[in-house]
Amino acid sequence: MLEIRRSLVDAMVAHARADHPDEACGVLAGPDGSDRPERFVPMINAARSPTFYEFDSGDLLRLYRDMDERDEVPVVIYHSHTATEAYPSRTDVTYASEPAAHYVLISTRETGTDDGPYELRSYRIVDGAVTEEAVEIIEG
Fold first, then answer.
1. Tens of pLDDT, residues 66-97
2. 57, 72, 80, 83: which could join 16 in a potential S-S bond, CB 3.0 to 4.6 Å?
3. Which of 1.20.140.10, 2.115.10.20, 1.10.10.10, 3.40.140.10 would CATH assign to domain 2-138?
4. For residue 113, what pLDDT band results from cuts at 50, 70 and 90?
5. Which residues is 138 bridged to in the sheet?
6. Is-contact 73 30, C-beta < 8 A?
7. Burial 30-46 (b: 16+ CB within 10 A, else e)
8. Where do runs of H (alpha helix) occur along the chain?
9. How far is 8 from 111, CA to CA, in rounded Å?
């Protein structure tokens, strides 16, 4: 199960809406060994695509160095789907390289950049196997 603060959910959703119609992507970093997302790190989708996301390699290297200095790990790796449900595509599964991370998908297909309903789901992706998990949003 992913336990996540409402403020972090709101930040991811706002990022997904702001980047629509392109996919948004980023990381929620947290203390090593805690499985607790704490820090919102929006990234730029280097692919600038409505159907694919890609972290810029330089940005990703800087992020991992920063997390190392802070004794953090990528607890959540998130991205949006702009025209489909919040379920990992074959490409998403292929590129999932952090077996301990929660992979969160946010679908903005119904409202785009506007306020309104969105779909948010979380998965574990290990060795190509996708397992959906419950999400508990903690107020505060």
1. 999 999 999 999 999 999 999 999 999 999 99
2. 80
3. 3.40.140.10
4. very high
5. 5
6. yes
7. beeeebebeebbbbbbb
8. 6-19, 57-69, 90-95
9. 20
